């Protein structure tokens, strides 16, 4: 996807210099063929199970990106009414939408029922009752799947690990049968499936396989009670390699294990990958403002900041940073930081780079949880977003203007 041509970095056939000149910086740049390849990797690995891939909208909700995933046959995993509105606005089909999340409001449930979504992943007994009541009042049946917490340690960052007993997510495994019996007894619920999601950025597939085993064990207990879910939703996708030392998850092994575990049970498969479909397709293009020699270390001060990319400061996440132009060969070791007035405003620590003021840098692997987690902190306008394919570049979100900053305020 990225290559150096005469010391200048390109994404496919487009130079970052030309992108910076045309659209300014900071700029999110996505590579469409990389998105397509990521979808194909899932489709190939899981070919024998023909799963519905529901792209997790929280990873990147840009309308053009959603539209592209829809064109590849993806459905969507949503966690709010806003995400449903985005999917519909992008032309996605409601009957390919799965609604996850612990705190669905009455308004969101009504909106989703009226839109005709495929299934609600219900996370508590209280939510089952609320969903049943609202469906009754709308004279329809709500399609449900229960999100079961399989109590498997995902061994990922604590902020994005969700499958342990101590997490707020899902219904406890030991309470699952009882919850299904209740769902089965409520008149306006229609049991469609089973669901779990144990966490994000899992680079070892063993916990995912263990969760699948536990879910299928539960399925057998349900069938014995004449409760027959049609689908198994295994939640988010596998992790990605942010740095060379990261372990590359084995998607084929995961797919093979899932197929073996499901065996000949009449269960269709749903997956909700976010990160692994889009992270590698996106980079954040930024310009060096200043090089500053501090008392103890050097700083490369860039025009992107923690408001554009929260992951480093929020999760101490590593994102590779590469120079996209070369005016100097003089390497320095420096922290790469933004202009925000917080010590936590860093994008990379102790990086070795040969750059000077005016050079361009790209921050890698930011297609997922990059732009979607951006904010206006320090009254910074959110970055523009561009899609690249071959030599084609398409603006998919314009840079915010100063007026956008106070658009919703009442004076
Ligand atoms: N399904 C559910 C119910 C989820 O909660 C999530 C992610 C996904 C699917 C998608 O998981 P993925 O395939 O992307 O691993 N902001 C964090 C990640 C938070 C993930 C939250 N849930 C980060 O930047 O690492």
Share in β-strands = 25-35%
**Secondary structural class:** alpha/beta
CATH architecture grouping of the largest domain: Alpha-Beta Barrel
- Percent helix: 25-40%
Give the low-pLDDT segments. Answer: none
Number of domains: 2
**Outline, from the CA principal axes?**
elongated
- CATH homolog superfamily of the largest domain: Alanine racemase
Please describe what this structure looks like:
Helix content is 28%, strand content 26%. With 411 residues, it is an alpha/beta fold. It folds into two domains: 2-30 and 279-405, Lyase, Ornithine Decarboxylase, Chain A, domain 1 (Beta Barrel), CATH 2.40.37; 101-271, TIM Barrel (Alpha-Beta Barrel), CATH 3.20.20.10. Helix 8 links the parallel strand 11 and strand 12 (231-233). The model has no long low-confidence stretch (mean pLDDT 96).
Question: Secondary structure elements and their pairing?
Answer:
Layout: E1 2-5, E2 8-11, E3 14-15, H1 16-23, E4 27-31, H2 32-45, E5 52-56, H3 63-71, E6 75-78, H4 81-89, E7 97-99, H5 106-115, E8 119-122, H6 125-137, E9 142-149, E10 171-172, H7 176-185, E11 189-195, H8 206-224, E12 231-233, H9 251-262, E13 268-271, H10 275-278, E14 282-293, E15 298-302, H11 311-315, E16 321-323, E17 332-337, E18 346-353, E19 360-363, E20 384-389, E21 392-397, H12 402-405
Ligand LLP binds at residues 56, 59, 77, 100, 160, 197, 200-201, 235-237, 272-276, 311, 315, 368-369.
